[in-house]
């Protein structure tokens, strides 16, 4: 590159972020690379100094850094609306961003700790990535539309027909029709299209102006599709997410002599973890399963999944997620497996202790719900393994009769979970798997009640569609008996579902 060309790609002055942090700026265009690497919002190179809101008494002199004493709790909305990088946005957009931080971010993680919630970190990337702004607004608007529509229904979300073999979702269809008329729903669709347009332009450009922002956009797009249905379209975003992350330039160059050369940035850590969750869970109800491969190949899979316990909403213990990945890998290459695989999967399942996992939790008062959550996931993972692995592979290792005999005790754990407990957000996938195994009307009514609680929590089509698929499974079982595995019905219908 010539000196003239290099000069043309650099600003004449440092960016305002580096000036405030007293760092040497590389003056890269359109945004500073130093800000990008440190995950700081680049405030640009404008001549006018950006407005900066602080709670300090003065910016210079003896009172520099002194703060006005606060009474009461600091509201997150003040930080969002006071961010200098968001000052140019319209009031409605800023309102959606504030709504996203206050209402959506807490649902995206199991435990909402301020510093450990990566979705709140997405907001810091918005000033340097316009597409991420569209993606965040689309998710917030859709979430808000679901809440407004469901508030119109005063009756119970579930009802049961006189036919004992059929369970219906009452009032939900009416809420959907009402939601289609809401301005928030129109805002969600409009910003979804703008997000897709942004991602398309980034893909055509060949190099990403802000890789972290683009990846965050794709994760938000995945969330949108899961909230809106959970069917089929999430696959395209997941495929794109993998391609972008592989091109991001954070692969083996981070390693030296088999060890980390530098610490993996926190946001990159979350991207890797989030991809692992989507890839493993997305393969469960898809016939053409894809074995999970870590994007950073020298990072052990189990270590990546352990981060998911604190960084995501999934709620599944890392060991059981690892078992799921092993089951998917075995099912995807049935002609290459060895007998040792069954022993390995069985060993992980049997050696996992729900009580030990519960005791190792972050809060003492969460011990009981964590124990219930772990028991539910352990049973669901074993049921799933029995469904997808060939009979010849599991015979002599897994005991299907034992699972059916213990189904009532498994359902008791589901029934005992407090509908207001934070751990409820992590049981959609296991509730679906256990529900598909339910045989009696009382068991199915209990599962439908659990989905009613999940609907109250999530208010998304992902929940309603999961119950509708269960209804179809129960109807087929009523006609054909239990001679076939229920996973074969899911494959036969040809719809790729992700219920999380």
UniProtKB/TrEMBL annotation:
SMART domains: GAL4. This is Fungal-specific transcription factor domain-domain-containing protein. One of its GO terms (biological process) is positive regulation of transcription by RNA polymerase II. Keywords: DNA-binding, Nucleus, Transcription, Transcription regulation. GO terms for cellular component: nucleus. SUPFAM superfamilies: Zn2/Cys6 DNA-binding domain. The keyword Cytoplasm does not apply. It is found in: Nucleus. The lineage of its organism: Eukaryota, Fungi, Dikarya, Ascomycota, Pezizomycotina. It comes from the Eukaryota. Residues 14-42 form the Zn(2)-C6 fungal-type domain. The keyword Magnesium does not apply. GO terms for molecular function: DNA-binding transcription factor activity, RNA polymerase II-specific; transcription cis-regulatory region binding; zinc ion binding.
